[in-house]
Amino acid sequence: MSDTAAEACPVRQPRLFPLERTGCPLDPAPEYAELREKEPVPWVKLRFNGREAWLLTRYDDVRQMLKDPRFSSDMADPGYPLQFHFPMELLGKVKPALLHMDPPAHTAHRMMLMPELSVKRVEAMRPRTQEIVDGCVDAMLEHGGPVDLVSMLSMPVPSLAMCELVGVPVEYVDLFHRWVTLLVTQGSAEEHASANAEVEVLLYKLIAERQENPGDDLISSLLQRNEKEGELEPADISALVRAMIAAGHESTVNGISIGSLALLHHPEQADWLREHPEMSGQAVDELSRYSSISDHGTVRVALEDVEIGGQLIRKGEGVICSLSAANHDPAVFEEPNKLDLTRRESRRNVAFGFGRHQCAGQMLVRMQLEVVFTTLLRRIPTLRLDAELDELPFKAKALIDGLHELPVTW
Ligand code: HEM
User: For residue 388, what pLDDT is reported?
Assistant: First the structure.
């Protein structure tokens, strides 16, 4: 489209975003389907802070934008569609998280982190993950139904796994949990700043300890690799660890809760997975696509004028990807609102993003979800929901979809 055509566009009437989610709480907002067809790149206004941005709803447009170097992840840019509180006075003082960096710094930092989360490293963690999940299922069985699956499984599995991976003593789990919850549920700026400061102090303490006494954990390993081949400062290491915990903990908690709910709401799919545990990788791909729990946290700002999906996006304007709309695009996924664990094209989903910021922990979380779902279905074959779907306490106003509680019984 030429500049003239773009300028001739009618006055923008922003829609409030996120869109209302009516109907089945496991389905995406119904308006996405209409937009994808008739107005794939609408102009939206964030309910959170009134910032305005373009919304991408088509699979191809989302992927095109995410691989385009003309878009930045710099949250300090005034056009960046920020969706959580960040004490702006800290910008420039606190090192940015990986998610908010651009190349070349992003490339250098990501290269330091990725060996820790490689397929080989993740596979080595599988037996311990199995032990952790078995321990949680033992506790559920010992307690007897009904139980809350969130507090007995979704929370402890990623908490213990993350603490062991990073080398954070288990007693600090609550602090991390409070901090991350504030980030993704849009807590107040004051709450955020105070939790942020506590986390920063703890990470510096741990880094200093591991410099003296290296252990078998990610902080020690990052420090050692950095000594040999990197140029990161302790503040950069702290930012990398912070980024991992921020991006990884709450999302995995919610991935376990929503994925379990999707299986329990579709008992025939749960039966299929119980009979085909060897297909758990494909099942996790489909559950990730279907639930797309991180719908609109993937955002960028344009560094120059770019056209996407027939829409001219001006330099300085923000863009929000709806990963859920992309993952329900019928051009790629037939009958997209249907959960079908046998679907082969599920592996094309963008639930973990795409391009240079694609989820660094995706191998880890996919392995954890495989272990959780197959173990749960095998060890408690009669597991079922102990509430109606529309009575469940979904996390409202959250950046990542999740549940406060998930009552189950057997
Ligand atoms: C169900 C669980 C998870 C989901 C749905 C998820 C989703 C995502 C998405 C969509 C992105 C891309 C954001 C963007 O492009 O702006 C991302 C980035 C990231 N994720 Fe995850 N994630 C999950 C779990 C994890 C875990 C367990 C870890 C760490 C162990 C992790 C670490 C990261 C990091 C460090 C980034 C930033 C990568 C970069 O900027 O280069 N995530 N995640």
Answer: 96
Q: Residues in the chain, how many? A: 410
Confidence of residue 361 (pLDDT cuts 50, 70, 90): very high
* CATH number where 61 lies: 1.10.630.10
Distances (CA, A) of 357 to 24, 68, 85, 110: 31, 11, 21, 9
Taking the C-alpha atoms of residue 314 and residue 93, their distance in angstroms, rounded to an integer, is: 29
Per the structure, the count of domains in the chain is: 1
- Return d(Cα 168, Cα 159) in angstroms, integer: 10
- What is the percent of the chain with per-residue pLDDT over 70, rounded to a whole number? 94
Reported as a single tens digit per residue, the pLDDT across 280-307 is 999 999 999 999 999 999 999 999 999 9
Binding site membership of 244 for ligand 1 (Cβ less than 6 Å): yes
Average pLDDT (258-269) is 98
Quote the pLDDT of residue 186: 61
- Computed over every residue of the chain, the mean pLDDT equals 91
Ligand 1, residues 74, 101, 154, 352: which to mutate, most atoms within 8 A of Cβ?
Answer: 352
How many Å separate Cα 212 from the centre of its chain?
Answer: 33
Mutate to test the pocket of ligand 1, among 359, 362, 401 (most ligand atoms within 8 A of CB): 359
How far is the C-alpha of 337 from the C-alpha of 339, rounded, in Å?
7
Which atom of ligand 1 approaches the CA of 240 most closely?
35
C-alpha distances (whole Å) from 194 to each of 45, 88, 186, 197, 302 are: 29, 14, 14, 5, 32
Q: What is the CA radius of gyration of the chain?
A: 21
360 lines ligand 1 (CB under 6 A): yes
**Structural domain of 81:** 3-409
pTM of the model: 0.93
- ∠ CA 285-300-326, rounded to 5°: 35
Extract the tokens encoding 86: 């960040």
